[in-house]
Amino acid sequence: MREHVKIVEVGPRDGLQNEPRPIVVDTKVALIERLVHAGVKHIEAASFVSPKWVPQMAGSAEVMQRVPRTAGVHYRALTPNLKGLEAAIAAGCEEVAVFGAASETFSQRNINCSIRESLERFRSVIEVALDNKLRVRGYVSCVLGCPYEGDITPEKVSEVALLLSEMGCHEISLGDTIGRGNPNSTRRMLEACIRVIPASQLAGHFHDTYGMAIANIVASLELGIRAFDSSVSGLGGCPYAVGASGNVATEDVVHLLHGMGYETGIDLPRLIQAGVYISSALGRETSSHVARAMSSHCSATLAD
Ligand code: HMG
Ligand code: MG
Q1: 304 compared with 47, residue with greater pLDDT
Q2: DSSP string, 234-245
Q3: Neighbours of ion ligand 2 (CB under 5 A)
Q4: pLDDT for residue 304 is more than 70
Q5: CA proximity to 223, closest of 196, 206, 200
Q6: Protein residue with its CA nearest to atom 12 in ligand 1
Q7: What is the pLDDT of residue 244?
Q8: Which ligand is nearest to the CA of 57?
Q9: Residues with Cβ within 6 A of ligand 1?
Q10: Which ligand approaches the C-alpha of residue 203 most closely?
Q11: What is the CATH number of the domain that holds 155?
């Protein structure tokens, strides 16, 4: 039997949060329906942050009310504070995520507080979420470099990751927010984290700014990581990380994993269709190598 790797689709949140033009709720829901149809089981669908900070996520409550409630499909929303958590609970979320950073400056720019203050805030968010039977994921951003501070030490990453894990996060997603990592720095950072948290509770979240994300995923697989965040069509970026491009494209990750003998439960042609849908809705080309290759292969076959 092939070993399973968990894919967390973050396109509807990380992917769309930075789009310059408003995206209507219908488009977000239609994307999520197509992802579900492709077999995606973990979808970050919403973000209950301040609409003044991230206007694109303003319709999150309506998105959560309209997503297909299919058995085995889990939706998650970002919740930076108790106000966000209350909104997520009211909208029927079963899983939320707190998002911290391994860089002081990024923490200030992204959530307007220091790392220490953010962890104090998250402690109460996590407590209330767990009391309400919600699962909580923890993010650590800037694990392989910060747009403001440059290098970040693996020890700083593992320190923040461990604190989130001890507070009750079931999974810690390690974010290469600006895509600065390479397989060697990825390994060093993961080795520090695996010393304090089992690999089974860690996830890789690689942005593909320098085209290193797939290489970093292979390095992570070698260290036993079996969960990865990705974004259909390679959508995205972070509004508080200048120059950050999208997450690695889910199509490319699924192609990699299936080719390496892992199973994901995702149907690649249907996933590519979901990517075609959102790329055309946004009026942009896909950033997925695999989607581009398969569409030119299909056109060439049709032309034969
Ligand atoms: P603040 O200004 O310090 O908050 O922002 P505040 O508590 O002083 O409140 C100010 C105003 O915001 C008040 O409204 C609050 O009610 C409102 P006003 O009285 O001015 O009308 N407010 C809220 N409204 C809706 N939902 C809320 C909420 N909280 C306060 N939850 C805050 C602090 C955290 C709210 C703000 O900084 C914020 O929303 N930041 C979000 C930034 C963000 O979403 N960044 C992108 C996601 S992180 C990311 O992409 C990285 C990741 O992908 C991993 C990786 O790649 O590394 C996860
Ligand atoms: Mg991200």
Answers
A1: 47
A2: G----TTSTT--
A3: 14
A4: no
A5: 200
A6: 50
A7: 73
A8: 1
A9: 14, 17, 47-50, 53-54, 80-81, 83-84, 99, 110-112, 139, 141, 175, 177, 205, 207, 238-240
A10: 1
A11: 3.20.20.70
Point out the ligand 1 atom lying closest to the alpha carbon of residue 176: 57
CA neighbours within 13 Å on the CB side: how many for 14? 36
Query: Which domain covers residue 132, as residue numbers?
Result: 6-303
Q: How do residues 231-253 score in pLDDT, each as one tens digit? A: 999 998 677 777 778 999 999 99
What total number of domains does the chain contain? 1
Which of the listed residues 16, 17, 50 should we mutate to test ligand 1's pocket, taking the one with most ligand atoms within 8 A of CB? 50
Tokens 């994921």 sit on residue? 137
Q: Is the model's pLDDT at 291 over the cut of 80?
A: yes
Mean pLDDT of all residues in 186-210: 98
Smallest CA-to-CA distance from 42 within 217, 231, 255 is with: 231
pLDDT (tens digit, 9 = 90+) per residue, 67-103?
999 999 999 999 999 999 999 999 999 999 999 999 9
Q: In this predicted structure, what is the pLDDT of residue 236? A: 86
Centroid of chain to Cα 59: 19
The Cα 95–Cα 135 span in angstroms is 5
Residue 1 lies in a domain: no
47 Cα: distance to centroid of ligand 1 (angstroms)? 10
Structural contact between residues 253 and 214, judged by C-beta atoms closer than 8 angstroms? yes
| Nearest-CA residue for atom 53 of ligand 1 | 14
> 């694109």: which residue's tokens?
56
- Asked whether residue 153 is assigned to any structural domain, the reply reads yes
Separation of CA 229 and ligand 1 centre (Å): 22
Encoded amino acid at 281, one letter:
A
pTM greater than the 0.85 cutoff: yes
Tell me the pLDDT tens digit for each residue of 130-146. 999 999 999 999 999 99
Is 238 within a domain? yes
